[in-house]
Amino acid sequence: MPPRVRKAVFPVAGLGTRFLPATKSVPKEMLPVVDRPLVQYAVDEALEAGIEQLIFVTGRGKMAIEDHFDVAFELEATQTSRGKKLNALDGTRMKPGSCVFVRQQEPLGLGHAIWCAREIVGNEPFAIFLPDEFMVGAPGCMKQMVDAYDKIGGNLICALEVDPSETHSYGVIDPGARNGALTEVKGLVEKPAPGTAPSNLIVAGRYILQPDVMRILENQEAGAGGEIQLTDAMAQMIGSQAFHGVTFDGDRYDCGSKLGFAQANLALAMSMPDIGPALKDFARKLVC
Ligand code: UTP
Question: Is residue 55 in a domain?
Answer without folding.
Answer: yes
